Amino acid sequence: MRLAAYCRVSTDREAQLESLENQKAFFAEFAGKYGHELVRVYADEGLSGRQMSNRKAFLQMLSDAETGLFEMVAVKDISRFARNTVDFLCATRRLRALRIEVQFLSNSQTILGGSEFVLTLFSALAQEESANLSKRVRFGKRVNARRGRVPNLIYGYDQLDTFTLAVNPQEAEVVRRVFSLYQNEGMGAHRIALLLNGEGVPGKKGGRWTSKTVRRMLRNPIYCGILVNNKYETVDFLTGQQVRLPADQQFVHERPAYAIVPKALFEQVQRTADARAGQYAANERHSSRHLFSGLIRCGSCGHLFTRRQYTYRNTFLKWGCSGHNQYTADFCPNAVSIDEQMLLEELERFLDRAVPDREAFLERVARICRRADRAPDRSDAGRRLAQLNRRAERYRAMCADGLIGFEELARQVACLDAERERLCGRLREDCPEADWTSRVRERFALPGWTNADLRELIDRITVFPDGRVEIAVKPLFGGSGTCG
After folding, report:
1. Stated pTM of the model
2. Tens-place pLDDT, residues 365-376
3. Percentage of the chain lying above the pLDDT 90 cut
4. What's 351-385 look like in SS3?
């Protein structure tokens, strides 16, 4: 009889894979012992038996059964065939309809001539065993999460043991750059991923960067020294469906030694990401790809202007209403097309009119920026120093009570001292007024501007169907103006 065999292991660990090889050898011996022709062994490696949809070898076996490739299937145990009672019954009934016999060798059961009731009981027991295993795994994960278990694999760190990470210096520089590009350069996650891939920066496993990877990095508080565990819980072990747990059920662990970026920068990035997410929800996705991206709006339909490149004898960069271009004039009558270079020149003339004394204006902006930058930093740094001092006292009290050893106390105090020294250096720093004026002058020189620079100055540019262009600048810089 032409025989096919099916075997499966639920993880890809070395011991389990060795078990898979043993199963294959077992079926070869079984076929020889009973005079069957072993036509194929179907094997799924590192996959759970709770769902049939993700087991390619299992689905291939059912497909080959339709072609008459074999007459019998041998499986060592019902739990290897399926841990989901519904999938088990669907698969066995499908094979039964094709008159293909399935033998479960450990249970001495068969689906041809055997009782479906008995097989269903065995399958239900296998599913219950899987459910109990899932409960035990969830309990163990929760206990470890409470103790402060760290991720097995996370960019920027090397795992030393289950509860300890060490900052990877090379990867930490990439992390700092990602946060800076997002917050200070106005780049989105997609552009950052493209940039890193273009420069050949490898991911954690040597793979390519994706926008999802970048967004997860920007949202992970571990990079500012806060480890959050127990964020998700599996609510259905059969489908693997997870739900996010509320904040009061999560475990938050302060780990200052893990901080790669300052907490203030991390919080700024969260506010920026929330604002961009709100724009996306309102169908106004944030973009910094081009100089005027997200800044020009139609005065008729309210849609943003998008950039198009035209090449005839020369190359022209034009901005037009996305509502008119996408939905035609029936939706928006604004067919005005603006040349990018002409708009940049008009913006320069507008700034000259709005700010006649550019040097005095830059000095005033420098004073405002210096006060806005320094005061919060000093206040935050002072509060943080007080927190560090209180934490050091708590560690010393714990050591005195015998809760931690001298080695652990020395390690924790060293981390706190390093953070304290960094903050003290920031408090001692004194940036002269002239330096701020120079920095502002460099930032507000139109040649070489980026989209992020324009967003700091321009609130919006509105283009009307009659050709009028209205430029509204941020309140700090003046008001608004209209140009033809």
Report:
1. 0.45
2. 555 555 544 444
3. 14
4. HHHHCCCHHHHHHHHHHHHHHHHHHHHHHHHHHHH
Q: Which of 399, 476, 255, 206 lies closest to 196, judged by CA?
A: 206
The pLDDT value recorded for residue 347 is: 76
Helix (H, G, I), strand (E, B) or coil at 117: helix
Other CB atoms closer than 10 Å to residue 88's CB: what's the count? 23
* 267-296 tens-digit pLDDT: 999 988 887 776 544 445 556 667 788 888
- For residues 288-305, one letter each, b for 16 or more C-beta atoms within 10 angstroms of the residue's C-beta and e for the rest, the string is beebbbbbbbbbbbebbb
The predicted pLDDT at position 437 comes to: 53
Is residue 2 within 8 A of residue 39, CB to CB? The reply is: yes
Dist. CA 298–CA 310, nearest whole Å: 21
Reference 417, options 389, 396, 386, 390; nearest CA is 389
First to last CA, the chain: 88
**Nearest Cα residue to 89 out of 46, 60, 127:** 127
Least confident of 41-45, 52-56, 337-341, 343-347: 52-56
Sequence-ordered list of residues with C-beta below 8 angstroms from that of 87, at least 6 positions apart, any chain: 51, 52
Rounded Cα distance between 48 and 9, Å, is: 7
Q: Which residue has the higher pLDDT, 149 or 484?
A: 149
- Rg (alpha carbons) of the chain, rounded to whole number: 32
Strand-pair partners of 318: 308, 339
Report the C-alpha gap between 211 and 197 in whole angstroms. 11
Q: Residue 62, Cβ neighbours under 10 Å: how many?
A: 19
The string of DSSP codes covering 77-112 is -HHHH-S-HHHHHHHHHHHHHTT-EEEETTTTEESS
CB contact burial 310-341 (16+ within 10 A = b; e otherwise): eeeeeeebbbbbbbbbeeeeeebebebbbebe
How would you list the strands of the sheet with 337-339, edge to edge? Answer: 305-311, 315-321, 337-339
